[in-house]
UniProtKB/TrEMBL annotation:
Biological role: Part of the ABC transporter FtsEX involved in cellular division.
PROSITE patterns: ABC_TRANSPORTER_1, ABC_TRANSPORTER_2
Presence of the UniProt keyword tRNA-binding in the record: no
Family that this chain belongs to: Belongs to the ABC transporter superfamily.
Subcellular localization: Cell membrane
Transmembrane segments annotated in the record for this chain: none
GO CC annotation terms, alphabetical: plasma membrane
This protein's UniProt keywords: ATP-binding, Cell cycle, Cell division, Cell membrane, Membrane, Nucleotide-binding, Transport
Protein known as: Cell division ATP-binding protein FtsE
Annotated GO MF terms: ATP binding; ATP hydrolysis activity; transmembrane transporter activity
Bilayer disposition of the protein: Peripheral membrane protein
Record GO biological process: cell division
Keyword hit for Nuclease: no
Organism: Priestia aryabhattai
Length: 228
């Protein structure tokens, strides 16, 4: 489902962020990406949804070679994966329902299908009662639930999450992780970059540790492995 083949990334200023990583994540896996600040995690994640391009090597996500997608085709590629950010990235002038529905409107789904899917994902993230609210009327945890719902409304095979609990309090973070676990149980592959030591150690999944742009540890049911 996700494969990196001898991937390097060097920025124009000479900083080497990724140094020859080769790794495979299979359909239905749940993998954490961990490591100290500046290790290359953000670059690793951003290359998965083509926010960044590798300097060399191949990245296969959901059957597409991300490294070779034309810029004009990137939006089409992104329609088939889900991406969840630390800062939610909701559209402030749209309601919860409209924020989620927008992801289906751009691919010209029928109104009937849009309503069906939006209500299904709102049920999953337990926000049916907030569908007419605007983002600024929601708590941080509720906004992240909307972000997750939007990321899965297209029924993607892969969800990429970049520090999804980074702006949330501990209790809310656990609630968000419950949702990710449920999504994974339904067959969706999840790749999550996180600094949350407690969550990684409690919800044991595959752990891929990156330091200085290299994979230094890859464990099936790993621990966070860093202090703090």
């Amino acid at each position: 489902m996700i494969e990196m083949q001898n991937v390097y990334k060097t920025y124009p200023n000479g900083v080497k962020a990724i140094n020859g990583i080769s790794i495979k994540i299979n359909q239905g896996e749940f993998a954490y990406i961990v490591g100290p600040s500046g290790a290359g995690k953000s670059t690793f994640i951003k290359m998965m949804y083509r926010e960044e391009k590798p300097s060399s090597g191949n990245i296969i996500v959901n059957g597409a070679n991300v490294a070779k997608i034309k810029d004009s085709k990137v939006p089409i590629f992104r329609r088939h994966i889900g991406v969840v950010f630390q800062d939610f990235k909701l559209l402030p002038k749209l309601t919860v329902y409209e924020n989620i529905a927008f992801a289906l409107e751009v691919i010209e789904q029928s109104p009937e299908e849009i309503k069906k899917r939006v209500l299904e994902v709102l049920e999953l993230v337990k926000l049916k009662g907030k569908m007419d609210s605007f983002p600024d009327e929601l708590s941080g945890g509720e906004q992240q639930r909307v972000s997750i719902a939007r990321s899965i409304v297209n029924s993607p095979k892969v969800v990429i999450a970049d520090e999804p609990t980074g702006n949330l309090d501990p209790e809310t973070s656990w609630e968000i992780m419950d949702i990710f676990e449920e999504i994974n149980k339904r067959g969706t592959t999840i790749l999550m970059a996180t600094h949350n030591r407690e969550i990684v150690n409690a919800i044991r999944k595959r752990v891929i540790a990156i330091e200085n742009g290299n994979v230094v540890r890859d464990e099936v049911r790993g621990e966070y492995g860093y202090e703090g």
